[in-house]
């Protein structure tokens, strides 16, 4: 089989989880990497044995001979980079958030549709190995009644350092897109959103509360602090005679428990063999399989068209607050 030739654009922290996953797939050749920093290109190029190393996307696209691109840039560059890749003939994986505003995501989705490019957005929580079993257990007897997401991090200083005050001021779009998307993935189409964001401890928005009414009749709740002593991530799904809880301490979900009439049972990651257990390996494997089949992504994945809905939800949250 001819290997899929991939270009990876942006070699920051998030590339450190995608590159090991991509290297583990026998059908994939990491053919090119792009980053404006010389040290990153050298380090990642050497570590993953990539010969073609570029400072700019334009240089990579000019040399051609690629099938797809993994766009892992900071969000302020995502839209233009992804569009340039699609217009050059590449399919694209776009790390979240796919633009800071829904209009950005719609623009990328329009190019993908017009150019017939296979595309996917990296909402890795959908691919956490515990999420689908949790959702299946919670809906075994019928639809959900309640969804509760807790998302607490001490990430405001890091966001300011990496992305600057403009993006930090819209932390809801750049980071809380994760729990908002996961609530929408589990709860379905959104009917109405009520939200509030507050400058509780700093001059930036650092406390967030949302209530989401779903078309199914379920109600979702999001509670988030950006001034937590460490990362705490929890999801609770309440169905008929069943409650499922997922928990992550300093990580995404690593353990879960199902409470039902039969008692309780654990959801475990013990038998998960991946380069990571947080969903990155699984989402990369899924998109590579779609590329090999020439098939569009479907649930649980999000393409750009689907991602518009999650980004629009974040937009609405900002406007309501």
Structure commentary:
With 321 residues, the protein is α/β, with parallel strands linked by helices. It folds into two domains: 4-125 and 280-302, NAD(P)-binding Rossmann-like Domain (Rossmann fold), CATH 3.40.50; 126-277 and 308-320, Dihydrodipicolinate Reductase, domain 2 (2-Layer Sandwich). The chain has eleven helices and 14 strands. Strands 8-9-10-7-11-12-13-14 form an eight-stranded mixed β-sheet, covered by helices on one side. Helix 1 (15-23) crosses helix 10, helix 5 runs antiparallel to helix 11 (304-320) and helix 9 packs across helix 11. It is globular, with a radius of gyration of 20 Å. The model has no long low-confidence stretch (mean pLDDT 92).
Helix-strand blueprint:
Layout: E1 4-9, H1 15-23, E2 28-34, H2 38-47, E3 52-54, H3 57-63, E4 68-71, H4 75-87, E5 91-95, H5 102-115, E6 119-122, H6 131-138, E7 146-152, H7 156-168, H8 171-174, H9 177-187, E8 190-198, E9 207-214, E10 219-225, E11 232-239, E12 242-249, E13 255-260, E14 263-267, H10 280-293, H11 304-320
Parallel strand pairs: 1-2, 1-4, 2-3, 4-5, 5-6, 7-10
Antiparallel strand pairs: 7-11, 8-9, 9-10, 11-12, 12-13, 13-14
């Amino acid at each position: 089989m001819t290997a899929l030739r991939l270009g990876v654009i942006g070699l920051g922290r998030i590339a450190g989880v995608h590159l090991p996953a991509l290297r583990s797939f026998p059908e994939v050749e990491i053919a090119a990497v792009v980053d404006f920093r010389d040290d990153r290109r050298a380090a990642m190029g050497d570590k993953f044995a990539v010969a073609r190393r570029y400072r700019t996307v334009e240089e990579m696209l000019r040399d051609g001979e690629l099938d797809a691109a993994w766009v892992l840039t900071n969000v302020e560059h995502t839209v233009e980079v992804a569009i340039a890749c699609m217009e050059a003939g590449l399919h694209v994986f776009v790390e979240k958030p796919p633009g800071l505003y829904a209009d950005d995501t719609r623009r990328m989705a329009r190019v993908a549709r017009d150019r017939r490019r296979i595309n996917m957005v990296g909402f890795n929580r959908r691919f956490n190995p515990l999420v689908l079993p949790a959702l299946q257990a919670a809906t075994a007897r019928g639809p959900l009644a309640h969804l509760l997401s807790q998302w607490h991090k001490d990430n405001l200083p890091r966001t300011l350092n990496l992305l600057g005050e403009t993006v930090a001021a819209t932390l809801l779009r750049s980071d809380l897109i994760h729990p908002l998307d996961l609530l929408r993935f589990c709860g379905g189409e959104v009917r109405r959103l009520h939200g509030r964001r507050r400058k509780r401890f700093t001059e930036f928005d650092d406390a967030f509360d949302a209530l989401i009414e779903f078309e199914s009749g379920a109600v979702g709740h999001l509670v988030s602090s950006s001034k937590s002593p460490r990362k705490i991530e929890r999801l609770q799904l309440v169905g008929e005679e069943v409650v499922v809880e997922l928990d992550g301490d300093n990580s995404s979900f690593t353990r879960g428990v199902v409470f039902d009439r039969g008692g309780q049972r654990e959801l475990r990651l013990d038998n998960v063999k991946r380069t990571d257990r947080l969903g990155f390996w699984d989402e990369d494997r899924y998109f590579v399989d779609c590329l090999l089949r020439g098939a569009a992504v479907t649930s649980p994945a999000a393409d750009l068209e689907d991602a518009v809905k999650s980004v629009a939800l974040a937009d609405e949250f900002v406007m309501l607050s």
